[in-house]
Write a structure and sequence with these properties.
OB fold (Dihydrolipoamide Acetyltransferase, E2P), binds 5'-O-[(L-methionyl)-sulphamoyl]adenosine, about 625 residues, Rossmann fold, about 20% strand, 27 strands, five-stranded antiparallel sheet, single chain, Isoleucyl-tRNA Synthetase, Domain 1, alpha+beta
Length: about 625
């Protein structure tokens, strides 16, 4: 077993709202990553923490509205978070609460330590305070005099308070970020923080007078004040591990990684590392930042009344279908739009069709031909390379938190297996033939590998797939290196196929919520299409091509001249896309080319093919490109 450990945290969520898709998303990512690391390092080497943030004005206000005491209210909502995670099958090692005694003790100790070291002082401060955000805003940060997040005018408050000498650590922080390029990732958030740090860093007000707010942790050196909620909350990441003396702290803190959305970048990228530095503790390893789920282009938020409830979706479509959708749909670091229609489309295409059909087909044939039992036969190496490539790709993608890419790589393996079956057509062959048996053994073996690779992402589905194949080993004891075992290990295998149930039922489009699609009548297709036969479609030779260089064509506003590479061949293609894609944006792009279009002359240049792009009603044009890297010359089917 490796000595390497892995510690991953989510934000601790405010208890002024019940869990929505945004909270569920971060927690699902963390759960997936923790499961993946458990496969890689062993279950004991991984610690996954989530929890709730329960102090501060916001909570007092929400409790008052609910007619409850802050503690009773926090207990209740925190309970709803815990129950939601359990019902979604999420398995953190600990659920931390900031109103727990160990956390309060740790916060007081941390404060005292920094106070004793001289990094906390008493002073007066006047500023624009937003009660929603629980923080002061500088003039510059306000937008039209309003809080940029809540769109309300802040109150001007002047009071005496305690301050943390954050500014003192500005140079150290800049240097640390520069020296560790992946301290904050993806890079755009690192750049954002570095650009923020170009301005002088002010000290941080870390107290609130008890006269105004009692719902907080008292400062150990002055009980007329309670701790500012962010200073309190961030410390959860170490209090939960038993800092300062806890064994878990010793083992896991050196491997700490935080996962957040971009809304709370500053407290995590600026306050927290400087707080740790002042307390003499090493910083975390990585801050991983994802984008927002939006609904019709707007960030989901309770105050705007636009929230998606994760449990409703999981109940309607199944936990794994919901997990698959959110993990596959959002590119880590970018925003994504949520729609139930898109969820149903993914469920039908990727889960019911590609994966579900493959699984049922293989298992049913093994049942029909061999009464459910099949042993290794001589020739099973056909999908070995594709499997190894998938394992390598998934491992590399997960290192970067690229969940969607990891799933795309697994789906490449699913497609390769489907293609392998279509090529060999075991359903048309004689079951007694050794070749037929080898094909089905290989397919079953690859299904086992697919199930193992999928297990961090879709734990229930993976378990069902393995059960269907008759694999008895519990998933937690298997390392990722075993996904594709040596031929010797494989030789010991015998598949005993169990009763085959479909993995994912197809969802009829009408079963989904009408939402935006409801505007059209379901019976009438939106765009009347002339139909063509598959033979007619096959006459098109569509290819992936790589753009080697691009140049403007003198005298033409729209045309751009491209030199593109197919497999071993280069061609000149003229595209009317210059206004959307200027010449300097093309080099290196992999595009889709109609390769057998009759050559035509445009502005005196012979164009050998046509570039495919999509255009919407507003005239916006985007290029069609392969969604994962693939060799130029590959045929589009
Ligand atoms: N309590 C603080 C965090 C303290 S951590 C020491 C807080 N809580 S929160 O309840 O507002 O949660 C914010 C987090 O919820 C985001 O960083 C993200 O993880 C998740 N999300 C909330 N809305 C989201 C979206 N619309 N999209 C994606 N994630 C979102 O801030």
């Amino acid at each position: 077993m490796s000595d390497e450990t892995f510690y991953l945290t989510t934000p601790i969520y405010y208890v002024n709202a019940t869990p929505h898709l945004g909270h569920a998303y971060t927690t699902i990512l963390a759960d997936t990553m923790a499961r993946f690391q458990k496969l890689r390092l062993g279950p004991e080497q991984v610690y996954f923490l989530t929890g709730t943030d329960e102090h501060g004005d916001k909570i007092v206000q929400a409790a008052a509205q609910a007619g409850e005491s802050p503690q009773a209210y926090a207990d209740r909502i925190s309970g709803i978070f815990q129950e939601t995670w359990t019902r979604l099958g999420l398995a953190p090692n600990q659920f931390v609460r900031t109103t727990s005694e160990p956390h309060k003790r740790a916060v007081q100790r941390f404060l005292q330590q920094i106070y004793d070291a001289g990094d906390i002082y008493f002073g007066e401060y006047g500023g624009h305070y937003c009660f929603g955000c629980e923080r002061f805003y500088t003039e510059k940060e306000l937008e039209d005099g309003q809080c940029p997040d809540h769109r309300t005018a802040p109150a001007f408050i002047k009071e005496q308070n305690y301050f943390f000498r954050m500014g003192k650590y500005q140079d150290w922080l800049i240097d640390h970020i520069r020296r560790h390029p992946d301290f904050i990732r993806p890079e755009r958030f690192r750049n954002e923080v570095l650009s923020f740090l170009k301005e002088p860093l002010e000290d941080l007000c870390i107290s609130r007078p008890s006269a105004r707010l009692t719902w907080g942790i008292p400062l150990p050196f002055d009980n007329r004040y309670v701790t500012y909620v962010w200073f309190d909350a961030l410390i959860n990441y170490i209090s939960a591990l038993g800092w300062p003396d806890g064994e878990a702290f010793r083992r896991f803190w050196p491997a700490a990684q935080h996962l957040i959305a971009k809304d709370i970048l500053k407290p995590h990228a600026v306050y927290w590392p400087t707080m740790l530095k002042a307390a003499g503790l090493p910083p975390y390893r990585h801050l991983n930042v994802h984008g927002y789920w939006k609904i019709e282009e707007v960030k989901m938020s309770k105050s705007r009344g636009s929230v998606v409830r994760p449990l409703e979706l999981a109940d309607k479509y199944g936990i794994d279908a919901f997990r698959y959708f959110v993990l596959r749909e959002m590119t880590f670091g970018l925003d994504a739009d949520f729609s139930e229609d898109a969820l149903v489309a993914r469920l039908n295409a990727d889960l019911a069709n590609d994966l579900g059909n493959l699984y049922s087909r293989v298992l049913k044939l093994i049942q029909r031909y061999y009464d459910g039992r099949i042993t290794q036969s001589s020739d099973n190496g056909h999908l070995a390379d594709a499997t190894r490539a998938a394992v390598a790709y998934v491992t590399a993608a997960m290192e970067r938190f690229a969940f969607s890419e990891a799933l795309a790589a697994i789906w490449n393996l699913v497609s390769a297996t489907n293609k392998y079956l279509v090529t060999h057509e075991p359903w048309k062959q004689d079951p007694g033939d050794a070749r037929t048996k080898a094909v089905l053994f290989t397919a079953a073996e690859t299904l086992r590998a697919i199930a193992m690779l999928l297990s961090p992402f879709l734990p229930k589905t993976a378990e069902r797939m393995l059960q269907g194949l008759g694999v008895a080993e519990p998933m937690t004891s298997i390392c990722i290196e075993d996904v594709y075992p040596s031929p010797v290990q494989m030789g010991l295998r015998e598949w005993r196929v169990q009763e085959v149930q479909p993995l994912f039922p197809r969802i009829q489009a009408t079963a989904a919520k009408p939402s935006r699609a409801g505007k059209e009548s379901a019976a009438v297709p939106e765009i009347p299409l002339e139909q063509i036969t598959i033979e007619e479609f096959r006459r098109l030779d569509l290819r992936v091509a790589e753009v080697v260089e691009a140049a403007a064509i003198p005298g033409s506003k729209k045309l751009v001249k491209l030199r593109v590479r197919l497999k071993d061949e280069e061609r000149i293609v003229v595209a009317g896309l210059k206004e959307h894609y200027p010449p300097e944006s093309w080099a290196g792009k992999r595009i889709i080319l109609v390769a057998n279009l009759k050559p035509t002359s445009l502005m005196g240049i012979t164009s050998q093919g046509m570039v495919l792009a999509a255009e919407d009603d507003a005239g916006r044009i985007v290029l069609l490109m392969p969604e994962a890297p693939i060799t130029p010359g590959s045929k589009v089917r």
